[in-house]
Amino acid sequence: MKPERYDEGRFEFGEAVRVTRNIRNDGTYPGLDVGTLLIRRGSVGNVVEVGTFLQDQIIFTVHFLNHGRMVGCRIEELIGVDEPWNPSRFEFRDRVVCSIDLGIQG
After folding, report:
1. Entry pTM
2. Burial class of residue 79 (count of CB atoms within 10 Å of its CB; 0-12, 13-18, 19+)
3. Do 75 and 50 form a contact (C-beta atoms < 8 A)?
4. pLDDT tens digit string along 41-63?
5. Pick from 72, 52, 53: which is nearest to 62 by CA?
6. Which residues of the chain have pLDDT under 50?
7. What CATH code would you report for 4-80?
């Protein structure tokens, strides 16, 4: 049995949700190249529809008003807008430089 978080009824129609991962075009969004960034993580949208993909994956259609896009999101990519969220300044594979030494006694 799947945990409650993965239930189809997790989010209701019109509920505000936050996307936890960058959403890129996998070829299903028309007019844009595959791999194009559609929605940046942390963006907030509203659920407009709940459907399935391949009969076993629940997909929420989320309308991101600030971006003017409606995008299908899997439940593991979404959290409620009121749930804790820690934004990051960095993207995956970004090069970062420490401003202080991280060594301890050595």
Report:
1. 0.73
2. middle
3. no
4. 899 999 998 887 777 778 899 99
5. 72
6. 1-6
7. 2.30.30.50
